[in-house]
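All the exercises in this workshop are built on plain-text protein records. There is nothing in a record beyond a sequence line and a structure line. A learned vocabulary of local backbone shapes supplies the integers on the structure line. The question running through the whole workshop is how a given chain folds. Here is such a record, shown just as it appears in the course material:

***
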Amino acid sequence: MRYHYEKPEIYSSMYGKLYICDHPVYSCCTLFEIGKKGLAVIQQRFNPDTKSTTWGEIDSWLTDSLYLHPRFKEYFDKHAEIGTNGLYPTVTIRQIMWALKMKPIPRERWETVFDRREI
């Protein structure tokens, strides 16, 4: 039995969209919108040349798995809000995967985490 969520060979990316914003932590994210409410999801990336990390949009092969998950709508309703000055409530990919009880993507040594506060 696999412990981590693995990238499927065939996938689509119909849900969620790349959203460019002026957030203090990230400049782009994956935004899920239902009606006027939105929820931003971010993932951390590592640049081996500069040995630095940045936060940005999630991998496209994860968007549909999140959105079509049976518990997503309940999680979305609890955390999403109408955008304020172009910013939406934000969660990391790990936070939402754990909350939905999905197997997480493998954790890398260089990853940092936010404690369970709003981002």
